[in-house]
Write a structure and sequence with these properties.
- The chain is α+β, with helices and mostly antiparallel strands and 140 residues long.
- It has a single domain, classed as Pnp Oxidase, Chain A (Roll).
- It has helices spanning 8-20, 33-39, 74-78, 108-130, and strands spanning 43-47, 52-55, 57-61, 64-70, 84-87, 90-96, 100-105.
- Helix 1 packs antiparallel against helix 4.
- The chain is elongated.
Length: 140
């Protein structure tokens, strides 16, 4: 029978990937509602009363916009007073088009970089600092 060996580096990598595995980065410039509907990706919707909501997707039904989010998400909790329609593990929430001030599209490239690059660099740094042979060359 094989013995289990504790590997500190793997544990750190696992913890960092779990904590950062769901970060979403949005473009800094707002897109149009039509772009958000066509992309069928995550969007951040800002209403005229300056409230921001993260949605899994956005679709248009006439003059109404229907946003989909997880039923236990922060967005669903913040919009608890609105009419919500269950759709499996998600809820659909209706927004009037005239109440939407801006829509920000998900930046897929930066989201991937944050989700994978930051944990790898952080883990490498932690392993380097905690290893017994770590001697930084500071130029002195």
């Amino acid at each position: 029978m094989k013995n289990f060996h504790f590997n500190f580096g793997r544990l750190i990598l696992l913890l960092l990937s779990i904590t950062l595995g769901s970060c979403n980065v949005y473009h800094s410039a707002p897109g149009t509602v039509n772009e958000a509907v066509e992309s069928e990706n995550r969007v951040r919707l800002v209403t005229k009363d300056n409230k921001s909501f993260e949605l899994k997707s956005l679709r248009q039904e006439g003059e109404k916009l229907v946003g989909t989010t997880g039923k236990n998400s922060e967005t669903a909790k913040m919009l608890n007073g609105r009419k919500q329609k269950l759709a499996g593990k998600n809820v659909e929430i209706v927004f009037q088009r005239d109440e939407v001030m801006a829509v920000y599209l998900k930046n897929k490239k930066m989201s991937r970089l944050v989700n994978y690059g930051v944990p790898v660099i952080g883990t490498a740094g932690l392993i380097g600092v905690t290893s017994s042979n770590f001697k930084p060359d500071v130029g002195f």
